[in-house]
Amino acid sequence: MSQVQYLQPSISTMNSTQSNRSHSPDSSSIQPASSRMSNSDMASTQIEQFEMTEDNAEEQGIESQRSHALPPVDGGWGAWSYLAAATALEMLIWGFANSYGVFLDHYDTIYPKSSVLPIIGTVAMGSMYTLLCPATLWLTSHPRQRIPAMWIGLVFLGASLLGAAFADSAGGLVVTQGVLYGIGGTLLWCPPTNYMFEWFHAKRGLAAGIMLSGTGAGGLVMPLVSIGLLEKFGKRTTLLAIGIAYIILLTLIIPFVRPRLPLSQQTTTRMPKVNWDFLKHAPFWMLWLGVLFQGLAAFMPSTYLPSYATALSLSPTVGTIAIAMMNTARVPGQVFLGYLADKLGARKLIISMSLASGISVFAGWGAAKNSGGLIGFSIAFGVFAGSYTALLSSFTKVLNHDDPHLPAILYALFYLARGIGSIISGPISSALMSNTSLGNAKGGYGVQSFGVLILWTGAGMIMSGIGAGYKTFKVE
Fold this sequence. Notes:
Blueprint lengths: L4 E2 L4 H12 L10 H17 L1 E2 L4 H4 L15 H22 L2 H11 L6 H25 L4 H21 L3 H30 L4 H30 L1 H19 L28 H17 L1 H12 L4 H28 L2 H19 L6 H14 L7 H8 L6 H27 L18 H13 L13
Antiparallel strand pairs: 1-2
Main location: membrane
Family: Belongs to the major facilitator superfamily. Monocarboxylate porter (TC 2.A.1.13) family.
Protein name: Major facilitator superfamily (MFS) profile domain-containing protein
């Protein structure tokens, strides 16, 4: 984030000018005292007029007058009100998307022979992760379109939920609850994500953690709301109710998502000057691959825990509670990890989170055979694996060298990796669930065909630690 900078006339130049005057026929020595005082005041006024509110004001076209001072960074009403609105928006968008496991368990009873049901949730989440990158590039060069994009996103998201209510096939749900929801969610989610880099600098990790904690809060509320509505009213009424409620709530939230940097009349639609040299160097790709591996495995538990609970002959409520507790654990986990990301190096946190996440899967899910074990695993996985995205803001600090446009683009590229992992994990999970080679294994590994899925999830968590290898190479 650019900082306030003051451009003042050179003192030596002013002294030289005064010296020249003293040797001229019209030197200041023959001027009245009141005239000399006026010149001094004029010089002071000229110095104040050189004050610039941002060091990238030329590109942004921001007025440099003191009367147009920008809101403070890292605090103040503007920053915190933006963060509250962004967190609420995150809660709604991602809370529903992360509750798909509840819908999957219900859809299995409606479309028992469909093989595409597992990909609906991953298509919705994967679309938002992958589309964030091109959306960020477009809105960086067309900043005036950010707020209109959110309103268009509201239309898409509302249409997806209302359309899913009337979809009468699994394929229709893929298009509505999957594709349309992903497009609408992206357009709603992208501008607040971009604005974070305007409002926060020193506290960016904490801000990212608070905003992302909305995902966990939504993941607590929405599974409980969804299963209650599904059991009492069925699919159509549930999706209609959620769709209408979302349209109303988002309409109230969007006006509070505001930029910090005002747009000048001279704002153009040309692409900003971004240094893409980071793509040529290993540190970026090590971090990017780590996010990819994490994305290939992180969505398995949230998708399959209700089905796993059913396989254990537990109440469907247990699976819903497991997802709710996993998402709840993300709230303090992401806030605390975001805080640590501002204080510690990214490498230590990557290694710690990857090992802890892997152990929670191998030892927790692998041993879960009752409701206590399943909920215990959910909490551990939520704290460690569910909080991983809070590290992404620290990744941008590793790679960025004072380019005002680069942080948001880097952030989007990391989410692209996570999105690719999410989309691929859908068909991978279907293939893994068809493997029964561990049917006689102990603990959770022997529950129906979940054994190979558990191994894949744990391995993906461990492999996400490859991102720590960026320290091996020089960050250019």
